[in-house]
């Protein structure tokens, strides 16, 4: 019997795609607003004693997160035996510790709130903060988009290429690409961060002259840092710049900035969140999260 899957407004298309498989059935629920814009949820299915799945990305604005929490809780208080939560993009993962002193630890608050709402298990695609999964007391499953991105890169048949880590945090990710694609040594890009969401390329370690470069990263917020990295590589003689990323935030200027940047040849990403275009420009290639979820969910 197909499992019930409920969706917030942020992930309706993903829920519909999953429901086309034999594994899930799109459950009926209304996620609307009262006159004062408070979130109202009404289940149109009996869930008492049943296992339910909920899908909802938690990118800004905050209503996306709040819808997810209220939907989880609504299922729980109406008697669902299990509430499995699929979060294609987990927002607030950047703040995964108190550092420096006086700053927020938002990810811990979000984890505790999801648990308090009634989640039984959480499934996340490429969590940005590597410390966050350890904060969960309930069952956690992380799903990696790297194999799907690697498969697409293989189909692209880029010649004479190398892999570059966009910063220290993406080195392990870049090494996975390099191992799968037969590259012995990755290029490492070093950056300084003079302010929030600002970065300056300070060094590039490795050979890129006359080579195509694949930039491996998990998340793009504004696109500015990726463009600065591409410019630095081009200045060192790189040819094509290909970006392989999981998440691109639709609420900022990332898509527009990447589209306009003349140094970047191609951007391959996953549909963990909606994009702002009616028709995606040729520069972008979107891969389906559904393939990952249907294949890898335990």
TrEMBL record:
<keyword id="KW-0460">Magnesium</keyword>
<keyword id="KW-0545">Nucleotide biosynthesis</keyword>
<dbReference type="GO" id="GO:0005737">
    <property type="term" value="C:cytoplasm"/>
</dbReference>
<dbReference type="GO" id="GO:0000287">
    <property type="term" value="F:magnesium ion binding"/>
</dbReference>
<dbReference type="Pfam" id="PF13793">
    <property type="entry name" value="Pribosyltran_N"/>
</dbReference>
<dbReference type="Pfam" id="PF00156">
    <property type="entry name" value="Pribosyltran"/>
</dbReference>
<dbReference type="GO" id="GO:0006015">
    <property type="term" value="P:5-phosphoribose 1-diphosphate biosynthetic process"/>
</dbReference>
<dbReference type="InterPro" id="IPR029099">
    <property type="entry name" value="Pribosyltran_N"/>
</dbReference>
<dbReference type="GO" id="GO:0005524">
    <property type="term" value="F:ATP binding"/>
</dbReference>
<dbReference type="InterPro" id="IPR029057">
    <property type="entry name" value="PRTase-like"/>
</dbReference>
<feature type="domain" description="Phosphoribosyltransferase">
    <location>
        <begin position="149"/>
        <end position="265"/>
    </location>
</feature>
<protein>
    <recommendedName>
        <fullName>ribose-phosphate diphosphokinase</fullName>
        <ecNumber>2.7.6.1</ecNumber>
    </recommendedName>
</protein>
<keyword id="KW-0067">ATP-binding</keyword>
<keyword id="KW-0418">Kinase</keyword>
<dbReference type="GO" id="GO:0006164">
    <property type="term" value="P:purine nucleotide biosynthetic process"/>
</dbReference>
<feature type="domain" description="Ribose-phosphate pyrophosphokinase N-terminal">
    <location>
        <begin position="5"/>
        <end position="118"/>
    </location>
</feature>
<dbReference type="GO" id="GO:0004749">
    <property type="term" value="F:ribose phosphate diphosphokinase activity"/>
</dbReference>
<keyword id="KW-0547">Nucleotide-binding</keyword>
<dbReference type="InterPro" id="IPR000836">
    <property type="entry name" value="PRTase_dom"/>
</dbReference>
<dbReference type="GO" id="GO:0016301">
    <property type="term" value="F:kinase activity"/>
</dbReference>
<dbReference type="GO" id="GO:0002189">
    <property type="term" value="C:ribose phosphate diphosphokinase complex"/>
</dbReference>
<comment type="similarity">
    <text>Belongs to the ribose-phosphate pyrophosphokinase family.</text>
</comment>
<keyword id="KW-0808">Transferase</keyword>
<keyword id="KW-0479">Metal-binding</keyword>
<dbReference type="InterPro" id="IPR005946">
    <property type="entry name" value="Rib-P_diPkinase"/>
</dbReference>
């Amino acid at each position: 019997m197909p499992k019930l899957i409920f969706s917030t407004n942020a992930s309706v298309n993903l829920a519909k795609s999953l429901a086309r498989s034999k594994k899930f059935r799109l459950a009926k629920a209304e996620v609307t607003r009262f006159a004062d814009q408070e979130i109202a949820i009404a289940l149109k299915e009996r869930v008492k004693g049943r296992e339910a799945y909920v899908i909802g990305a938690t990118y800004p604005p905050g209503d996306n997160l709040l819808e997810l929490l209220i939907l989880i809780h609504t299922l729980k208080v109406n008697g669902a035996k299990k509430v499995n939560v699929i979060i294609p993009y987990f927002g607030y993962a950047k703040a995964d510790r108190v550092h420096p002193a006086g700053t927020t630890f938002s990810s811990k608050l979000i984890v505790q709130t999801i648990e308090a709402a009634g989640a039984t298990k959480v499934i996340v695609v490429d969590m940005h903060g590597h410390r966050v999964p350890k904060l969960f007391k309930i069952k956690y499953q992380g799903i990696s988009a790297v194999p799907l991105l690697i498969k697409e890169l293989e189909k692209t048949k880029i010649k004479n290429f190398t892999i570059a880590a966009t910063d220290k945090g993406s080195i392990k990710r870049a090494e996975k690409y390099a191992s799968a694609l037969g590259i012995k040594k990755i290029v490492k890009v070093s950056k300084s961060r003079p302010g929030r969401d600002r970065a300056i390329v300070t060094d590039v370690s490795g050979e890129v002259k006359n080579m195509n470069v694949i930039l491996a990263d998990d998340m793009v917020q504004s696109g500015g840092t990726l463009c600065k990295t591409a410019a630095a590589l081009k200045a060192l003689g790189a040819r094509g710049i290909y970006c392989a990323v999981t998440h691109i935030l639709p609420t900022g200027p990332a898509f527009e900035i990447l589209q306009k940047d003349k140094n970047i040849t191609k951007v391959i990403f996953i549909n963990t969140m909606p994009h702002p275009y009616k028709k995606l420009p040729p520069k972008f290639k979107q891969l389906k999260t559904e393939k990952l979820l249907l294949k890898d969910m335990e």
